Amino acid sequence: MKSVKVHDDTHRVLKQMKNQTRGKSIDEVIRGMIRTATGVSVDRFAFGKSLDLTNYMEPEKQK
Length: 63
Hints:
The structure is a single chain. Strand 1 and strand 2 (50-51) form a beta hairpin. It contains three helices and two strands; from the N terminus they run ααββα. The chain has a two-stranded antiparallel sheet with strand order 1-2. By secondary structure, the protein is mainly α. The protein has one domain (8-62).
């Protein structure tokens, strides 16, 4: 594994995220990251059991 140098504040936040997500499924972690990054819940794009992220992933095609 290759190490990456980060600022102390970034390292502190990453450690906090790791501790907060301990025990959660990867799905819950990814959903949380998307919600944090976009301000939008993944469920907004869900239709039934499948997930349609077309509008989210390709905003230029929304026109």
